[in-house]
Amino acid sequence: HYYFVNEITNNNFILKNENFKHAANVVKLKVGEEIVCNYHEQSFLCEIVLIATDHLIAQQLKQLPSTEAPIKTIAILGIIREQKWDFVLQKLTELGVHAIVPTIFKRSVVKVEPKAIEKKILRWTKICEDAAEQSHRSVVPIIHKPIINLQELEQYKSELNLVLWEDAHQKPLKSTLNSQFRSLSFIVGPEGGIEQKEIEILATLGFETVSLGQRILRAETASIALLSALNYEKEW
Ligand code: SAM
To answer: How far apart are CA 56 and CA 40, in angstroms?
Structure first.
């Protein structure tokens, strides 16, 4: 069992609240059993040494090798309908994404009420936490506040900056991915796609268009396809 913990005292991790309830009451772990504690983006194999009424203490046995990707990726995604959106958050977390920037394009059908943003980010972060635990990641992807003004994407640029565009036939992904880079930001449009004028704005920000081939992929397929291709190309 994997837990993200934030309390440590002389190399022992303290599990409280949700973590404690899950370990003690749901999976009913016992003293002597082993768990993995994630702390400050590192993973440790630990042994439970004490179970109290409202917390448990796990002693650090050894640090585990990182499962994090060597390339930092920022996914700038047109927000799509909830069910598919939740699916993309889960899959990109499994595939090692570092951060997600929900973005509203002209053709976005999904609108996010300003007063609902905090609650949505909390729910989206929980999806990523569960996916990070399931995929044995020591890092939970960051979900940024939704972007409406595309100019603000400047702050999320990386060494390599791509916008996935089905009309960019002349720019196949392969030639782009096998260049050397340590960080990648990629943009995927919503169900309705990205307008030509928006592509031009993104080009002025330094996002180069790239194609995933001749077929039109659903938004959720495109972002998963790109990150899968990167996993394969960079063998992480
Ligand atoms: N223009 C599309 C259509 O005609 O149905 C709608 C957009 S598509 C459903 C959603 C997003 O996935 C696009 O904005 C683009 O970012 C990405 N995408 C889909 N197919 C792609 C391809 N072959 N190459 C690059 N990006 C693609």
So the answer is: 19
Residue 97 corresponds to which amino acid?
A: V
pTM attached to this predicted model:
0.90
| Spatial separation of the C-alpha atoms in residues 207 and 204, rounded to whole Å | 7
List phi, psi (to 5°) of 62. -160, 155
187 touches 222 (CB < 8 A): no
pLDDT tens, position by position, 26-77: 999 999 999 999 998 899 999 999 999 999 999 999 999 988 988 999 999 9
- The ipTM value here is 0.97
CA-nearest of 141, 144, 57, 59 to 103 is 144
The residue whose CB lies within 8 Å of the most ligand 1 atoms, and thus the one to mutate among 166, 186, 221, 228, is 166
Q: What is the DSSP letter of 188?
A: E
Between the CA of 22 and the centroid of ligand 1 the distance, in Å, is 41
